[in-house]
Write a structure and sequence with these properties.
Blueprint lengths: L1 E5 L2 H18 L4 E4 L6 H7 L10 E4 L1 E3 L10 H10 L9 E2 L8 H15 L4 E5 L20 E4 L2 H4 L13 E4 L2 H5 L3 E6 L5 H8 L18 E6 L1
Parallel strand pairs: 1-10, 2-3, 2-6, 3-5, 6-9, 9-10
Antiparallel strand pairs: 4-8, 7-8
Helix pairs in contact: 1-2
The structure holds the ligand O=C1O[C@H](COP(=O)(O)O)[C@@H](O)[C@H](O)[C@H]1O.
The site of the ligand O=C1O[C@H](COP(=O)(O)O)[C@@H](O)[C@H](O)[C@H]1O has 14 residues, from loops.
């Protein structure tokens, strides 16, 4: 993991966008696995300054809450439409998404597994860090999941957004698995936001364990970790 210290959020966002622009100049139709949350918002805004560069970009949604409908203002779907798909003018034909309604969860997981098997690996995977060390919805646990799956969410993950903590229990999400992430040709890992000091310290120990799924990024040969320090 190549750790890049940034002065502030603006620098982190600009550097991350520059990495994407460099990659897309080589492969315009690259497959881009998109995280949501506060960490990549600035990066996506930087990318949106050069929409012409993304005329062939293919986007796949990384994760989604199962406890709210896709049309909810706090869904990952709504976020991606607002911050990535509309600003970059990505049509539905170049966007792979999934539903998370309880009765569809299993079939949607299977659909995504088949899509990734046929179209993967991701050329670029954007990751944020959860306060508990998670990446996507791969939460700390005794074991981790390799493929796209339905995940039970940790309390700290649900509390990340007050609107989400009002949903029925147990709360779940759908997300890419650890193998999907670690097979990516390039990973851009954004470490930004309050309350992540413990998780970041744990990563810096360079000890790989399922108590901190983000620690597995040490196994990946092409990860740029941008951190505000
Ligand atoms: O719960 C989550 O949080 C992380 C980090 O979110 P951020 O708002 O601090 O950037 C996010 O990357 C992840 O996809 C999501 O599951």
């Amino acid at each position: 993991m190549n750790i890049v210290s940034c002065k502030n959020y603006e620098e982190l966002s600009q550097r991350a966008a520059q990495i994407v622009l460099k990659e897309i100049s080589v492969k315009p139709d690259l497959l881009f696995c998109a995280a949501t949350g506060n960490s990549p918002t600035g990066m996506y805004a930087e990318m949106a300054k050069k929409p012409e560069a993304f005329h062939s970009l293919r986007v796949i949604k990384m994760d989604e809450w199962g406890i709210i409908p896709l049309s909810h203002p706090d869904s990952c779907e709504t976020y991606l439409k607002k911050h990535l798909l509309r600003p970059l003018d990505i049509p539905v034909e170049r966007y792979m998404t999934f539903d998370t309604a309880a009765d569809l969860a299993e079939s949607e997981c299977e659909k995504m597994r088949q899509f990734i098997a046929a179209n993967g690996p991701f050329d670029i995977c954007i990751l944020g860090l959860g306060k508990n060390g998670h990446i996507a919805f791969n939460e700390p646990a005794d074991f981790l999941q390799p493929f796209f799956h339905k995940a039970t969410l940790a309390p700290s993950t649900i509390q990340h957004d007050p609107a989400l903590s009002q949903g029925p229990e147990p709360a779940y999400g759908l997300c890419v698995g650890m193998r999907d992430i670690l097979q990516s040709k390039k990973i851009i890992f954004l470490v930004s936001g309050k309350g992540k000091e413990d998780a970041w310290r744990r990563i810096q120990e360079q000890k790989i364990g399922t108590d901190c799924p983000a620690s597995f990024l040490w196994l990946h040969p092409n990860t740029d970790c941008l951190v505000i320090e």
